[in-house]
Design goal:
The chain is mainly alpha-helical. Helices cover 80% and strands 0% of the residues. It has one domain.
């Protein structure tokens, strides 16, 4: 039984040695750009959801403070608590998903760098 050949890297290091190290590695990072951009967009969505929680709480306090009786206040409070709970769950999920994608991209870039280093060392020997 033969072992499966590992996937080759998606990018390669720029051979121009006059560039700084991060500019030489940039083609590898760009090869995983979709993951990076998706993770950042989802992270920003999570931030927006987190900002909506205090805004919802402010709206609830203003609505209850305006009056309308105890029964109307209870209804507003229950509805607001449900909205805040939903926002908190969505913010948690977006944070979790964003972190997963960030780590996946980081591991893929690390894999590409390790594979390129191994290939280079194998050619030198």
């Amino acid at each position: 039984m033969t072992a499966a050949k590992p996937a080759s890297p998606r990018g390669s290091i720029d051979p121009d040695t006059s560039k700084s190290w991060w500019r030489r590695v940039l083609p590898i990072a760009r090869a995983h750009g979709v993951l990076f951009v998706t993770a950042i967009i989802i992270s920003l969505l999570g931030l927006v959801l987190q900002v909506m929680i205090p805004a919802q709480l402010n709206s609830t306090i203003n609505t209850i403070g305006a009056g309308g009786g105890a029964e109307a206040g209870t209804q507003v409070l229950v509805r607001s608590a449900s909205i805040i709970a939903a926002l908190a769950i969505l913010a948690f999920a977006s944070g979790l998903w964003s972190r997963y994608l960030q780590l996946k991209a980081a591991y893929e870039v690390e894999y590409d760098l390790r594979t390129l280093t191994f290939e280079h060392l194998a050619r030198m020997s």
